[in-house]
């Protein structure tokens, strides 16, 4: 009995004001510069049978600029940063240093009142395990791409802080629910 090959390509949305300033994300569209960069990369998007995007405005705007007709998928939503949404890391560090340290050190901590790192990785793993055979392309936030890599390589949650996924980068995964491999991580969308 042969297994159906599965491929998942995660494309990180274009630059937003929050990604540009290292702030906790809010639901915002890509910047003009981000939209232009996505439009310029349109010819370099891998073709896939199933097209998805996180329901965030940055992802929907990136899909439009890339010319993709995708379906929103709530499981790909960005990380819920609770009351820290929209604040930059330095401001949170100055105002709540203990809470920020707990968030960085304990994957189950959610001092901001949102989603913990552990919950983000679990949600991403559940989404990956539900992928059918064939090729799925999904436009998502950087945290989903990072969580996918951590899950696939079996790294501890602390490995999340060592994975980078910038705007308009591609993470390519191959395999299936119990046998994923990382083919490429954080590769620029354009050549």
Name the CATH superfamily classification. Phosphoglycerate mutase-like
Q: What is the subunit arrangement here?
A: single chain
CATH architecture type: 3-Layer(aba) Sandwich
Q: What is the average of the pLDDT values? A: 94
**What's the CATH class label?**
Alpha Beta
- Helicity, in percent? 25-40%
Number of domain units:
1
> What order do the strands of the largest sheet run in, or round the barrel if closed?
3-2-4-1-5-6
The beta-strand count equals: 6
State the end-to-end CA separation.
Answer: 38 Å
**Rg measurement, Å:** 16 Å
Assign an overall shape: globular
CATH fold-level name: Rossmann fold
Largest beta-sheet characterization = 6 strands, mixed
Report the order of strands and helices.
EHHEHEHHHEHEE
| Number of H/I helices | 7
Provide the structure class: alpha/beta
How much of the sequence lies in strands comes to 15-25%
Task: Show unreliable segments.
Answer: none
3D structure, described in words:
This protein is an alpha/beta fold and 191 residues long. The chain contains seven helices and six strands. Helix 3 (57-66) links the parallel strand 2 (50-53) and strand 3. Helix 2 (32-40) packs parallel to helix 3. The model has no long low-confidence stretch (mean pLDDT 94). It comes from Pseudonocardia ammonioxydans. InterPro entries: His_Pase_superF_clade-1, His_PPase_superfam. This is Broad specificity phosphatase PhoE.
């Amino acid at each position: 009995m042969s297994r159906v090959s599965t491929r998942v390509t995660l494309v990180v949305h274009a630059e937003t004001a929050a990604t540009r300033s290292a702030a906790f994300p809010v639901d915002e569209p890509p910047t003009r510069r981000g939209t232009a960069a996505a439009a310029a990369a349109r010819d370099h998007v891998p073709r896939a049978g199933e097209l998805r995007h996180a329901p965030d405005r940055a992802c929907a705007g990136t899909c439009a600029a890339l010319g993709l007709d995708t379906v929103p998928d709530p499981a790909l939503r960005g990380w819920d940063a609770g009351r820290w949404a929209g604040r930059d890391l330095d401001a949170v560090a100055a105002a709540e240093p203990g809470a920020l340290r707990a968030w960085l050190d304990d994957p189950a901590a959610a001092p901001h009142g949102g989603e913990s790192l552990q919950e983000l990785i679990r949600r991403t793993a559940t989404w990956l395990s539900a992928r059918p055979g064939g090729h799925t392309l999904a436009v998502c936030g950087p945290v989903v791409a990072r969580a996918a890599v951590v899950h696939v390589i079996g790294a501890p949650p602390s490995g999340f802080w060592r994975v980078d996924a910038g705007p308009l980068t591609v993470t390519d995964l191959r395999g299936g629910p119990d046998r994923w491999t990382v083919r490429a991580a954080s590769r620029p969308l354009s050549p």
